[in-house]
Design goal:
Elements lengths: L1 E4 L3 H8 L9 H27 L12 H8 L4 H19 L6 E4 L5 E8 L2 E5 L8 H14 L3 E5 L10 H10 L3 E3 L3 H10 L9 E3 L4 H10 L4 E2 L7 E6 L5 H12 L6 E6 L2 H15 L5 H11 L1 E4 L3 H11 L3 E5 L3 H5 L7 E4 L5 H6 L25 E8 L2 H17 L3 H15 L10
Catalytic activity: L-histidinol + 2 NAD(+) + H2O = L-histidine + 2 NADH + 3 H(+)
Keywords: Amino-acid biosynthesis, Histidine biosynthesis, Metal-binding, NAD, Oxidoreductase, Zinc
InterPro entries: Ald_DH/histidinol_DH (IPR016161), Histidinol_DH_CS (IPR001692), Histidinol_DH_monofunct (IPR022695), Hstdl_DH (IPR012131)
Length: 438
Amino acid sequence: MRIIKSGDKALSDLLQGRTADLDKVENEVKDIVGAIRDGGDKQLCAITARFDGTALTPSDLAVSEAEIKAAYQKVSERFLAALRLAAQNIQRYHSRQLHNSWIDPQPDGTVLGQLITPLSRVGIYVPGGKAAYPSSVLMNAIPAAVAGVQQIVMVTPPDRSGAVNPYTLVAAAEAGVTEIYRVGGAQAVAALAYGTETVNRVDKIVGPGNIYVTAAKRQVFGVVDIDMLAGPSEILIVADASARPEFVAADMLSQAEHDELASSILVTPVAGLAEKVQQQITAQLAKLNRREVAEKSINERGAIIITATLEEAVQVANSFAPEHLELLVADPYRWLGSVAGAGAVFLGHFSPEPVGDYLAGPNHVLPTGGTARFFSPLNVDTFMKKTSLIGYSPLALARDGEDILTLANTEGLDAHAASVQYRLTALAGGKDEGSAAE
């Protein structure tokens, strides 16, 4: 693992190298999206067979209620209890994010306000195939359910036999998913965006996936809304002398095992800690099931950055705006006010990132690649839309009309001006505002 001093050029290179290059799959994904848009179910099944090795017919695409019930028999009671506790915490946390519509009537009869309403139909993408990510099901579906979305559609890749992982199915049932389709990749995103004979189109697509999924989401944005363009997972740890090296190393490896492109960064003013963390990473790597993935991630994307002070370490963290930021310092709340951008902040030595991934309640679908500078985690607002309300009384229009005319005429939009002027003329002549023109 590299050790970098805060002023080195290597730090700048590290900052620039964290995003996935979507352009390299752009043309391939464009072909897939176009095929689904034009060919519907037939192409959806053909492309699934090509990429996932699963032979499906259109009648196989939807997961049945019987399959979901059978899935409950394949998971342990211990898993189900943990899943339900996580779901309860996620539901409670996201319920705090709800906002009410509002109307603000004025004495002159003007009414201004905002309607806040849920989207009607959303699609959630959950990675699948060989792996199972029930936590991702909860994190995507529960905020949508809390928002009041009536139709929550899940797509997830099947295994080679065409089956969907039972843990994923149980999580979907617990989280309020209303439809499940056994398709993944760019083809699933296209099906959600454009619709097929079997899969009805949605209003928004959320959830992280591989580079093909992310590129497809970028291509269909505008046809539907999306949450964000998620890149490889990342963690940045700010640590002082109070940090335990085995904790730091374990937390760095918890991200490295996700993906070879994941980034695990330690920033500290304590050179001795850096050396001990290196030793711990070597020792802990030997015990991991996903050692090859984690080792490549740590060696190619990981780093330890040595700063002069803890304040400088926090500044480096802000320049990264990481997906996950851990403050493994003696007084994390003292430094929290200095954090300018992060998807999620983990406070103190006993708040490791997996607590947020699974059970605490805040969403684990977070902005990556520095986009925490301007993106937020997946939340209830992701599934809401806002509509402005404007109701002017005759008194209010008479008061503001000349100013509106001035602005409309300045922009050369005389039809805009006329729509106001007709009403001002009617008011000046004492005619009823709703009477027909003579």
